[in-house]
Specification:
One of its GO terms (molecular function) is aldehyde oxygenase (deformylating) activity. The protein has one domain (17-282): Ferritin, core subunit, four-helix bundle (Ferritin), CATH 1.20.1260. Helices cover 66% and strands 0% of the residues. The protein contains ten helices and no strands. Helix 3 runs antiparallel to helix 6. The structure holds fe (ii) ion (2 copies).
Length: 283
Amino acid sequence: MQSTATMPTSEAVPTPASPDKRYFDLMAYITSNTVAGEIMAVENYSEMVPLMPSTDAKIDTVKQAFEEAKHIRMLSSLGKRLDYEVKDRIVEPQWLAIRKHFSAAVAKRDLAACLIIQDIMTETMAIVLYRMLQRDTDPVTRETAAAILKDEELHLQMGIDRLAGMLEADREAVHDALIWAHHRVMPELFSMVSTSCHSLCDELQVDCGGIGLDSIRTDIEALRVEALDTYMESLDRVGFDVRVTTPLIASMSSYGAVPSADLRLRATDDGAACGATDAARCC
Ligand SMILES: [Fe+2]
Ligand SMILES: [Fe+2]
């Protein structure tokens, strides 16, 4: 978007000839893929309920699933208001891969891995996404993203609080769960910080090569740095050991992600932690 004055509004009705078509194609792509993430979240939270240790925690988890369902409705309504198509099912295969890993964690009754995958990893990426959707987008998108962001920040905080308690009880098991989940889920999540897709653009009938984040004044590299920084911050807030998290963060460079100022990576130089290559073997 060039300026606020040219931003589409809720009254805008884009047409194929509209100068805003590229913007709306991008929004159709982002919103559809975000709905897919929300659908995955509904399923993850629902599947996690029986693992929760108390009735209060089960009720809170059901509430989280309900809030993700509400986000699906809000995003669908956003597409209707701005007149672009929003898919109401998962199209991109990464979400299905993450679901599969989550189900594997449920099958082994690894609640820490479930919380790490959904409350920490997925919610952190959701927060980065909903923050991005408030930068240089239209007023309706900004309003929707701001409302959803509040819920996602609470979900992240709930996960941080739960995991901090579990970490106190059994540091080794929770760190093992982090390593297990990181190598399976983070590459899938990061592969979606991209404007290329498997088949979503085809399904939406938008030009896969033509959509670009530059239409909302951001770029993939900046977004990847922000995503990795925010992920690192979330891990720190839980209280994970930097000797474990440092090689995990370093391993993300093989997926094209490098944090903006990761002083901890220097720890790998003096042997305090294993490096990126070793991290790949840690799982
Ligand atoms: Fe959500
Ligand atoms: Fe959430």
